[in-house]
Amino acid sequence: MQKNSINTFSKLAVPLKSKGRFFKENKTKLRSDFQRDRDRIVHSTAFRRLKHKTQVFVNTSGDHFRTRITHSLEVSQLARTLSKFFNLNEDLSETLSLAHDLGHTPFGHAGEEELNKCMKKFGGFDHNIQTIRIILFLENRYYDFKGLNLTLETLDGLLKHNGPIRNFKKYDKIIGKNYFKKKIKFSLSPSLEAQIASISDDIAYNSHDLEDGLKSNLFQLEDLNSIPILKNIVFKHKKKIKNYSVDLIIRQIVRELINVMVEDIIINTKNNIKKTKIKNLNDVYKAKYPIVTFSKKMRKFDKKIKIFLRKKMYYHKKVKRNTNQGKKIIKKLFFAIKKNPNKYLNVSKYDKSNSVRSICDFIAGMTDRYAINLYNKIK
User: Which of 57, 86, 148, 206 could link 65 by a cystine bridge, Cβ 3.0 to 4.6 Å?
Assistant: First the structure.
């Protein structure tokens, strides 16, 4: 079965057989290297906690709003669709999609901002790098090593979620200097599978935050008339408002929007491969610019929708009230725990040589509700 899979892969795909892991392990006949990676992510504690971590709305505010776990599943479904179309390594794309948000704090980006402020003198905080910390050090499920010991290709894709890395300052401070010992080539472009996981993250954000914003009445369908592409989709479906509920119309608009974005990526990526004469995986790594991209028209839309959501949703007074409370909770927890770490941390589990980073790991790993409950106990 695995042999057939290899034959169907494109020459641009990351091969089914990995280059290896940090710690040597026996192979298994049941699963490929990347299926094992995916399963390790799904079984991790950090992944389970995502179900109680904010996407936009604090987790206690409603049953049907997205959380980090539903967002990650949606990203993974989009990434599989695109990977399948281009005959790429679907299991790698899925793994990267499921893992990309493991490092998020409670209370969304507001929590991240506050924790970064608290850690300013100690190397800062970044949710993408925190994902790597979780995978390398913090998950503890094996006798022979710390972390999940994922493949080098998965690590490469997660490290380069936002493209090649040229500035190592934060990585050196948060992970450790020269930790990867030349096993990762930071200046090279990420694999197509990693680029697909990254752009699928954008599609999921744009479409599903839009749906949550409409359903929570933070803005109305009429407000979308200033956004290109979306304006035409809304106009088409609003004609059916006499026959169908607003809820169903919103769902249809979001479905169509996702479809339009996915089709745009397929057409544009095909053109990029042709234009830049990408013939094999080596060419992908050496490419100077991303290959999996939106068209110019869709990039304009992407920019517009992000500005719209920031203004109408993320900075909406209802949302801000909750996120400001989230910031207050993070700050209070950080300084209370820093004052007396032994009271809150199982010190044997954490890095004794860097207690402040251990406090940061502890807070970043909290769910919204755990953070709220602990805050109420100590305030």
Answer: 57
